[in-house]
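Justification of resources, computational component.

The compute hours requested in this renewal are based largely on the per-chain cost of generating structure records like the one below. Each record pairs the submitted sequence with a full structure-token output. That output is archived, and it is also reused by downstream analysis tasks.
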Amino acid sequence: MRIAATISAALLAATTFAGTWRDQLSPPQPGPFPPPRPLHICYKFGWGLIPAGAAEADMALTDAGLLRVVAKGGTTGAVRALWRLDAEGTSLCRPATLRPVSGTQREVYSNETVEAKFEFDGEGVTRTRQKKSVAGVKTKRVLTPNLFNMPTAFLWVRSQRLQTGDTYRCAVYPQSSVYLAEARVIGREKCEAAKKSYDAIKLGLRVHVMNRELQMEPHKKFKQAFAWFSDDSDRILLKMTADVFVGSVWMEMDKVEFPSSAE
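The structure output for this chain reads:
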């Protein structure tokens, strides 16, 4: 889903790593924090002081015992007049390991529709992609073990102990390239979201992107980024901000609900 991938990628800044980038990855196993309970959550996005978009997502277990995230959103207001986008996507993962199983993305622009499917396994991911204006389907195979997609990367970070000073690194495949993402726990502070003040865990976020030589290099368009998780039994992603080449962008929770198992 392009809006989520764009905003999330824009909320990561570059750093420097020594040695082989694969040597920098944290163990891929989830941490001690349990998976989230079922929820429905809404976010709003902005560019500086301008509202730019909105998205909502549902997270719950399937009958087969997989954790499913279903999300949809798009640009709004003045930004929509400049860049029209409606997007939706799904992600399935195994709750015990938080390893992604599969995913889908559909992006509808003013002049184009793009659809993609992702199948993850122990060696990497297979992506199939189709533009409605072009005949045929393109298939891409990426051989990088222990890949996360965007939803499972956040679930994996959320699962860790998140003590001040901890740093976690993982390989992420949000759409078309492999990223080396780093989350560093800065500390605890208050965070405002959905007209409420939360005790929150603040993280600094950084990223490298894989080049054609299969090496990681700093992402040139992103400068500085931060994320806040609620410091409670749910660890909800409350807010993300970043300074990028076009200015300041942000994402903030607007509403969250926890449906009962009977609903």
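Helices lie at 2-10, 77-82, 150-159. Residues 2-254 form a domain with the YmcC-like fold fold (CATH 2.40.360).
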